[in-house]
Fold each of these.
Amino acid sequence: MNFIENTKEGFRSIKSNLLRTVLTALIISIGIMSLVGILTAIEGIKYSVSSTFSTLGANSFDIEKKWDGGGRGGRQSKVYPDITEFQAKQYKELMSEKARVSISTQVSGAASVKAGNIKTNPNMSVVGGDENFLVNENYDLEQGRPFSTLELESGAPVAIIGQEVAGKLFPKQNPEGKSMVLLGRRFKVIGRIKSEGGGLGGGGSNRQIIIPLETATQIPTPSPLTFQIKSAILNNTSLAYAMEEATGIMRKVRQDRLGQEDSFEITRSDSVEQTLNKITGYLKTGGFLVGFITLLGASIGLMNIMMVSVTERTREIGIRKALGATIHQIRQQFLIEAIVICVLGGIAGIILGVLMGNGIAILIGQGEFFVPWLWMLVGMIICVSVGLFSGYYPAYKASKLDPIESLRYE
């Protein structure tokens, strides 16, 4: 009895015990479905997050004043000078050929805005930005227009507002062209930012009011303004190389002496994505362990069913041995049978797992249908391994049965 005959015999045995085979394969398919489903969902969510961050300027970096936590262990905190408007504009000029640079400044993080007899809570953020600010921050305008060159240069009292600001000041109205009072000055609304769903900070752009950078510098503030810089790489330049070049330019602008540490901080805009990738790595490990434990339970169930099968077919084994079947051939037959059941269950589990995982990923985030070829391959390898693990002992037991005793078994 060769390998092909053993395979055929395995399929005949599966067909003759169809209900038991279906139930056994179902145990395996549930285990594989949980493994592939969880990992597919994680991969799908990760793909959605990566796509989102690629559209949110993952090829950019921010420069701002360095902040020293200080005061710990008796150490005196170090005060770093603010980034001035002159320094920010110098950097922008020197970096203009290598990146699209935007300059902004936080005028107030807790401002109250008034329009007519309606007044908002003092939780609105006022930001001054230049001509590149909107595009570098990936803010889309739902209504209105961006600042004109004349408005930017002259410091005109115009503003672009977020959804929450517009909803509170001008409910069910188009805010474009309306007036509002902000920080003691009257501003004309020229645009509204498209809602971004609240953002990570609770308000995001929804509570933001953007005014021209020149206008921001004309508003009296309790302390001098510090400016933030964002550089977006537009060509094929390496982000790491551009950051090194930006560091050199900024040190020159800030006049940081040789050997002195940087008086500013450069942060990659994809740092949040890197953190999320690390988290999804932990989730993958957890998902794999959960799926593996489920499969371990399924393999024990399969081994139990194969043991019952050996007991039921004791007389059949005796006949085969009497006709000349060797120990190796009997063992091979039962192993093939266990592997075939696992593979059938595995195929069903993979299909269900991919559908379930993509369904979860679509419900949680947005993204295209994701096919995890790697995890499908891993699932099939695990199926064969489970078949070998679960089928070996029953196959070994069957091969060791005494043919005379087996023929007498009722």
Amino acid sequence: MRVFLPLTAVTAAALLLVTVTGATPAAADRNPDGPPLVKVSHGDPYAKCTIGARSPDSIVYPATEVEPYLSVDPRDPRRVVTVFQQDRWNDGGARGLVASWTTDGHTFHRSTLPFSLCAPGGADYERATDPWVSTGPDGTVYASGEGVDFTKSTRTALLAATSRDGGRTWQNLTTTHVDEQPFFNDKPSLTADPIRNGTAYQVWNRLDNDPPGPSSLDGPGYISVTRDGGRTWSGARPFVDTSTVPNTQTIGHLIVVDRHTGTLYDFFDRITHSEDLSTVVEARYEVVTSTDAGETWSAPVTVAKDTSVPEVDPNDPTKLLRAASTLPSPAVDPKTGTLYMAYEGSDFSGGRFDSVQLVRSTDGGRTWGAPELISPEGVPAFSPSVAVDERGTLALTYYDLRFLEPGDTTTLPTAYQLATLPHGDPQRRTERQISRVFDWLQAPFAGGYFLGDYQGLVADGKGVRAVLTETHSDAPQNRTDVYTGSFRTS
């Protein structure tokens, strides 16, 4: 979801944002500069599931895997868990969510996340979306997602589960919050506290359109916390207020933690709409902080103006894309505490298209520098992810369209790039391509050609590990797969 829609339209469009095992062998080398990527999505555990069609116009894309995220065990970087949507629908969500895990960093095995009725033992929801995963300092893996119903009622629920065997099996399935119309929950993320065993934070935005119609939108940030390793979660409560300015919502909440101070930083986009909700009046990224493990939170501080513009095929703007506009990607330097936030913005193109931009703070988020351009000048770029390794090297990944030729309206050649900045120094920036070149227009269509509203990047001890979506040409029964790779940053 990019902007809020009244509930007369939410059921038609709002989700457009938005244990079976099997081993996956390493794929052939798919990136021209570095170690091979490994395919982590193999087979379709939900292929026979017939649940979830909301109307005759509902289209499910079989064997599609999109919107991946990942985590690495801080005790052993070979223990990796990735999560992603499985079998995307055109009108919101997927048949279910899937995890893929490894103990050697190379050979991945599949397990189903119990967040929809398509999954064995899954929650009572017709579809699922917004997969997220994070691993705590004791090795506990926390996964979250959103369950969605359309046919019985319009329900959205925040769900969580834990694994204590590295993603093989999942327990403690918990509904941390659930709403029916006129409320709509969106874009949850989950962060395991890196210094507090058993503690994790789930955050999201909760949209209130009561009564349905214009001039009645409120979209505060909500939080639920576990302090016992995911066995129980606290009642959901608001922690970022939007009630003081009419028709204002938040989106993209994501917490990062400073391991030295224990301070929590929650980043998000605050969007104010016109009275009829048809246009955006103002949008800016903000951060709030907590020094008591999420009990209380500061007033918001502005991080950067959201200058993103519609994501489209540059050669044919009628072709809509779905990437990460409005969604911040933050990170904190584990040595210095410097905060970074990457995002899509159009400051460097005069408002013509989005690039990957970066801002930083060296004083604990109190003040922020001007935006820096990370992706190549003059090239549309999308879906930035950011991480900082143990040596203080800043890494960013993103899709860009540098291979698109003028006049080409039949394909959209796309590649995934990795940029590294030692100690965050833009003068020492290097870049390498880590995916093959693929056609974005082969992706499933869900409010735009959809690779996912986000991809993933984390530090893994020796450098960073990325997870990303690629498409296949001329493969309508297998349009996308998810790949991962580990890359040295120095």
Amino acid sequence: MKSPASFKKAAAWALPYWTRGQAGRETPQDLFRVLYFGWLVALTLKLLGSAWDVSWHFKWLRDDLAPPHLLNSAGTALVVVLTVVHGYTGYGVDKAALRLIQWGTGIFLVAVPLDLINHRVNGLDITSWSPSHIMLYVGTFFMIAGVIRGWFMGAPPGRERTVVLGAFFAFFLENMHFPEQHQEYGVLSLGAWDNHATYAEPILLRFAADQMGRPIDRVMMSGFTLPVPDYLYPVYAVVAVLSVLVAARLMIGRFGAATLVAGAYVGFRTLIWPLLTFGGFPPSAVPFFFVVAGLLVDLAFLVRVPAVRAVVGVAAVTAGAYGALVVQSAVMGSVYGAIKGQTGLYGSPPLVTSSALWAGLGLLAVWLAAEWVAGRRERRAQPIEARVIATATP
């Protein structure tokens, strides 16, 4: 515990910075680092709370003041403090980053009471895909996107910039994938029921059964553990998760970036798995196939064909589209294969192979958008003379 003298020293250091300013003002590097390491602490608290929260809700009846909620709330409180500091002082963010952080935090704070009202009106919220929960994910999406932009634009080049950027993308990946943990916990909980065992407490099963108007049987358990269509898990995993890994590879700009971001998240899930199960909480399937997806994204960037660069004619755009189609098809097929392999070896939510068409189309759109962004950045980085030559080339 820090002494009063330490707090006074910290206050004396911070007080001169507490001045009104516009976003984008020059930020001293020591203050910049304090702000963004504060974000790392806040997002870590939210990560630990959310990781515990899913397992908690597969065991106990919901409680507003459950320990996972309190842990997440501590992170949210720090998020609010940092958002106010950025907004008032203008330090550490440009206008775009500040707007993303403010909108994201605002959406999240609005979603919290709406979620509480939803539970009061509808009782147990069977799925993590409910509208109020989706608002929480959307708010966190914009919030972390703003943090990523702020760090990306303001951190000096070097190892620390790369490592922290990767950490923020790992938090971003966790938020994007979070709703799918319902299926990852659900498939093992349903399997336990089939083996004449249950992870959930009787009060939770009774409440869920009463809400569905059914006895406690397999149909009820299936509705409780896997309440969304089976095709949703692989399609969402391919499109949403790979979009984060593609963005991470683009912004970090190094081979292995996507693999390390995916590996960091999978490593965290692997670490907390025994901690939760030894504490008596239900286990979950861990998405080990994310590491395969990350490696494939890194490899794909070695052979990718930029889809849109300078205005050089339809041929280049067409070639880029075909290149993206080939790359994303190979990546999508390999990820589906990895999910299938994991299902047989360790366990994974049900895989509907026919959904590969929709996953492929979604991933193609993401890949083309990523190529367009990459081409736009390259064009901006070119000298004016090079752009003119590229435009004039037949």
Amino acid sequence: MTSLPPQPLSPLDGRYRSAVGELGEHLSEAGLNRARVLVEVEWLIAQTDRGFFGTTPLSDEQKSRLRSVVTEFGQVDIDELAGLEATTRHDVKAVEYYVRRRLELLGLDSIAELTHFACTSEDINNLSYAITVRDAVRDVWLPKYRAVIGALAALAVEHRDAAMLSRTHGQPATPSTMGKELAVFVHRLSRIADQVEATEYLGKFSGATGTFSAHVVAAPDVAWPTVSREFVESLDLSWNPLTTQIESHDWQAELYARVSHANRVLHNLATDIWTYISLGYFRQIPQAGATGSSTMPHKINPIRFENAEANLELSSAVLDSLAATLVTSRLQRDLTDSSAQRNIGVGFGHSLLALDNIQRGLGEIDLDTALLAADLDDNWEVLGEAIQTVIRAEVVAGRSSISDPYALLKELTRGKRVGAAELAAFVEGLEIGDDAKARLLALTPGGYTGIASKLVDELG
């Protein structure tokens, strides 16, 4: 048997690349290296702007050419860095040498020794990860997540008046509307979106053990904490003043926990939509050329929601592991985070793939209002709650002497099918006021939805 040509090991880089490839712009090794180059370049500019060690600020043209090393970073640079790392056996040192080469090409050899000045590798890495994760979340994951919320909100508004039989514990229960039930998910997901949007991306820039020791020896008169804070904030990050060699990763744990929470709410949505499809509440719209089963030609399988479930579970498994691992580093630094953080893209990739499936799936279903109405008409016993509640109110108001209304309705309805005629006859015989009796006699399962439709307005 001949060997296959090199193949992607992860389905995210193979089968599903078209759905998640945009994340690679940020959460790939190349994306990380480009961010590292950015940090090194901006640190060079920041030092010369301050005139460290007799340097003079770079001209606008020199800054522009130096920054173009980042903006024009491409495959040739990726390959060059890979070659450098093969020699250095150290990813950040390879980036330093790469930047030094660019300074030579730009005629900026005089500031070469300021490359990576007073930095430990983690000073570069933590800022680079913060930049890449921030941009991946803001530019890729959150827009797709909010698109799903938007699609769901549109369905909630469209079906706000579509009365449906609820099921608590899987059993017929007080009716709601499909719109209100979907709005519940919109509200849950929106809260998490706001929390993710408010994530604080922290960075440190304080040397080998977070003490500015080398900095102070080299330039004792510089206010290094101020320099550090201003540099970190110039990258649109929040400064962390108290760290070991590494930034403590707490912001990452917080973010991944929130995304994992979002995954689990989305998983709940997927299983509910799957169940509504199974009940026939939602019809699946046939897609031209698609096959549901290799042997049963009639089938349209809810694969979008099933695939979403699996990918949400995988995403949460990775993100939960990262959140648990990254908050611990032995003493002043260990390398457990090094391999762990290289899987951030995997966690977000599976979540993004699930979002893509859900968004597509929501566009391929249609509500069967006739079936919803028939289901309601077949379950008049759900009005037992309304009847016993009205009786209790009438007793308190002095218009009824019925004892234990709940037990009375339990005897009539529990575990039984009760039709419209039977309930009407029962209500007619009740000792309650005429207005209350009229309200109950006019009630139907489809009309017993309270203010479900109006609650959709809570979405704003």
